[in-house]
Write a structure and sequence with these properties.
By secondary structure, the protein is mainly beta. The protein has 2 domains: 1-153, Thrombin, subunit H (Beta Barrel), CATH 2.40.10; 199-335, Beta Barrel (Lipocalin), CATH 2.40.128. Helix content is 12%, strand content 33%. It is built from 5 helices and 20 strands. The protein has helices spanning 98-106, 126-132, 154-157, 246-252, 263-274; strands at residues 37-40, 43-47, 51-55, 61-66, 73-79, 82-87, 92-97, 118-120, 164-170, 173-178, 183-186, 194-198, 206-212, 215-220, 225-230, 235-241, 288-290, 294-299, 303-308, 314-319. The strands form 5 sheets. A 4-stranded antiparallel β-sheet has the order 1-2-3-4, with helices on one face. A 4-stranded antiparallel β-sheet has the order 5-6-7-8. It is globular, with a radius of gyration of 19 Å.
Length: 335
């Protein structure tokens, strides 16, 4: 937890999936670190690979919540008294009652009572798969514990994998961002699931946050743009050129101390392992938090950039390190 704009660290701790522990086949740590994060009163909920950790303001864990179909969690979003969760490894979205998650605290470390967790499975919808041009894929073991079943890297490369990595709600209608095909999918509402928007700028993108009826913001990870998606008009337009900020220009030219940020230097140093594993890279844009005054966007090496909500003007950056492998994931505004 850090203070804006000074960057003063208020609290920190490692986030590691522990129950069950993960033997990760990805040498870069596909399961490591914190994912999405939300604030709920005095509590902070942090997602690890398969569990929602309830913490106090000192980031001390006071309870946990998990489910057999929460695997590869990416972003989480609070809307009212529900948490919307992207269970990316199984191409699913989940809606979890907030009281069930916070109930882990009241249970003094004991597992909370079974909750009515709702799941959506878009790869099992033939019309959705046909629209996206992917084969329909079912998950027949929904009653089993799938939290460690889909760790292998090849699962992400399968033709039917959508990389559903963010979920949010516009009123009562729930939507998901599909990173791989570059689409926004309506999960609930009138009729069946529907692809409401597809655009090349959404391919590889992260985060989905509604800022008004039919209007959602998405972080364009590959383009280096903060995007506004008009789900009614079916358009995508850039709001902020993240790659044009002073911080991004400094990183791109290898500036700053230490100079290990340089892509060329990193490539020369790490080129042997790169053949066997995906490459970490600088300026991997991911992480979004918005309130009435501020927009915060994350990137690598781990940093959070701040922008004025009204003018979209760049206001500065808080840096957390110079290691290109350390990347911001979830961001939440605690005050």
């Amino acid at each position: 937890m850090a203070e804006w704009p000074s960057g003063r660290l208020l609290a920190e701790r490692p986030v590691v999936p522990a129950d069950p522990p993960v033997d990760d086949p990805n040498p870069r740590g596909n399961s490591r670190g914190g994912r999405g994060v939300v604030v709920a009163g005095d509590a902070i909920v942090i997602a690890n690979y398969h569990t929602l950790e309830v913490c106090d303001r000192d980031l001390k864990v006071t309870g946990t919540f998990s489910h057999g179909n929460l695997a590869g969690i990416h972003e989480i979003m609070r809307r009212g008294e529900r948490l919307l969760v992207a269970s990316t490894a199984v191409n699913a979205a989940a809606e979890v009652p907030l009281e069930a998650v916070l109930g882990a605290v009241a249970a003094a470390g004991m597992p909370p009572a079974p909750a009515a967790v709702r799941f959506w499975w878009p790869t099992e919808e033939p019309a959705v798969c046909e629209r996206l041009g992917v084969p329909a894929t079912s998950y027949p073991h929904k009653q089993a514990d799938n939290r460690l079943r889909y760790l292998e890297l090849h699962n992400r490369g399968q033709a039917g994998h959508l990389h559903l990595n963010a979920v949010d709600a516009d009123g009562e209608q729930v939507y998901a961002l599909l990173n791989k095909p570059g689409a926004i999918l309506r999960l609930s509402g009138p009729g069946s699931m529907e692809v409401v928007l597809r655009h090349p700028l959404l391919e590889g993108a992260h985060n989905l946050e509604f800022v008004g009826p039919g209007r959602a913001w998405v972080v364009g990870t590959r383009s280096g743009l903060l995007l506004e998606c008009d789900l009614v008009g079916g358009t995508v337009r850039p709001l902020i050129d993240l790659a044009a900020t002073p911080f991004a220009r400094e990183v791109a030219r290898g500036g700053g101390e230490p100079r290990t940020w340089s892509w060329l230097r990193w490539l020369q140093r790490e080129r042997a392992p790169m053949a066997a594993e995906p490459a970490a890279r600088p300026l991997f844009w991911r992480g979004l938090a918005v309130n009435a005054d501020w927009i915060f966007v994350g990137t690598s090496p781990a940093a959070i950039l701040g922008f004025d909500r009204r003018s979209f003007a760049y206001q500065g950056v808080v840096r957390f390190g110079a290691n290109v492998r350390e990347i911001v994931h979830g961001i939440a505004i605690a005050a």
